[in-house]
Amino acid sequence: MNILVAGGAGYIGSHMLKHLAGDGHHVVTYDDLSKGYRDAVKYGELVEADLGDPLALDEVFRQHRFDAVMHFAAFIEVGESVLHPDKYYHNNVSNTQALLDAMVAHKVRHFIFSSTAAIFGEPKYTPIDEAHPKAPINPYGRSKFMVEQMLSDYDRAYGLKSTCLRYFNAAGADPDGELGERHNPETHLIPLILQAASGRREDIKVFGRDYSTDDGTCVRDYIHINDLCSAHALALSRMQQTITSAAYNLGNGKGFSVQQVIDVTREVTGVDFKVTDAERRAGDPAVLVADASLAKHELGWKPQHDSLETIIKTAWQWETDFLCK
Q: Is the full-model pTM beyond 0.90?
């Protein structure tokens, strides 16, 4: 297949490029490099352009007869979305609409959307399945949910089929050491802890130890980046076979507390780094865990790297390689 990967220079997108190329697909990355890295695009062609530029989109669709589009080009920082909602609605919603309009104009009918567990808001129950109420509590989550609603409308009106994949916490790195997680600024727990272990950060802060969990710290569901990519590939295959739209929650179905992540990181790295306690952050639920049984049943998805130790080992390999560069 010939696949356009929007945001292919980012963390998830770059790993997806490797996965797709390994399956024999032809890939083209479309990225403005505002968040991604040129050297992360190790497979296929890179088109450096703004996702909201209709002329650039038209040109890339004219040059390539795409069979499908995968979209990873959203902004993802919750705190920033509260401070600058205009930035998030413009990039995550308006620019996505521009991409969908280009697909409709060029008769590309298969779309894989990188969505998020943030569309659910404060959990009413856990683990969270696809039927859970959608009530996002910040502009980031609302922007993603708006796109999911938009996709439903584009399906009815134009026959554009989509699969929305709602991640919980993408983590880890390419086991080959070729790719890893690079955000600026970094906001994800595991790379932040590893930066404390490697000395790139003074400490790791634990925001609250009085939650209703076994050790008092928040519990989250971490999914290895390679397992995430395999779910995307399976979703694309299913969509071609069934020609229907769908949505799936992606996670390991088990949670690990902040303290557990710290403890396993100490075991993996052999480093006793500094941990600082801090006050709770507003809007942090005690537990966020996915029910991914629908993806396993309908896609035949089977996570292969679901142990916390494996996730941290691959991320630590990337962190130590980064320090050597």
A: yes
